[in-house]
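task queued by scheduler; priority normal; single chain, no ligands, no partner chains; default sampling; output format set to structure tokens
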Amino acid sequence: MYYLRLFSVILITCLCLYSCKNATSEAKTNSETGTILGKEKPKVSVLELKIGTFYKEILSNGKLFALRKADLKFRVSEEIEKIHINNGDMVQKNTVLAAVNNFSYYNQLQRALVQYDKARTEMQDVLIGQGLNINDSARIAPQVWKIAAAKSGLTDAAINLQSAQYNYENTALRAPFNGVVANLKLKEHAMVSSAETFCTLIDNSVFNAEFQVLESEIGNITKGEQVVVIPFSSDSVPQKGIVTEINPLIDENGLVTVKAQISNTGNKLYEGMNVRIRIRKACPGKLIVPKQAVLQRQGKQVVFTLEDGRAIWNYVTVGDENSEYYTITEGLKPDMKVIVSNNLNLGHDAEVEVSEEFK
């Protein structure tokens, strides 16, 4: 009786263990398929591989510098009487930006005019003595005119008048070109000297982006090539530019300085702004996949393709890369359907469901 009970206990225990093992096996992930029994198939996006143009990218950081920038100064020293501008104002060429008190310079000009008229009258007397008229200068020999002008003082008077006119005209500071005002610090009634900068004028219509690239990359850049300039302050306003200068000198760090010219469309760019530079070089005839399609498995690069509703594991060799794509040199062929989403946990030969074509 004892042995019969023992046999029954052993038999029941074995049946329980067998049932648990089967249940565990059904729930366990199959290492070959990567699917879980009883769960939905993973939904993936696929892309049909085509030969196309790959854009090799050169990335760098740079800074913007205006093509025209001037520190404006009064050419005379005097008290500032009126300032017509503020920092950030856009001004046109020849606009009066500010003026100093011109009383003394006006008087100097008037005295110079009087002296000039007096000297001209004295010169007329000298010429009349020789039977000549000052108003008929075309008939007077240059040497005769020179001697008469020196004797009468007309030469000195003309020089003084020219200087007085220059000083008087420069009591008003004018914009030498169209631009935006910056670094204005002086106030009205402050004294300003000819050695002191009144403000800075920046032509912000066009900028140079100055940046550096590696010696190994310089062969991929040529003058006239298009670049994209993206300010650090706003990724949403990229601007296009053209390479205008490549400095033929490699510095001690193995870098080459490049300049690109950018039009300030929309007035979003500023002098001294830090920017990202992207140069794209077209390379046709490449097999290209999005970066999210390439995975690292067992120390190698893998791409899953779709065949008969199943994910197939493919070892690949990648070539060039940019911010979005890899080129594939080995492991894939055109017209294969590559899985580009929901592929991180896939296993070889796993059943999948296509949710959409990748765009």
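post-processing summary
- The two ends are 75 Å apart (CA to CA).
- The longest strand covers residues 51-73.
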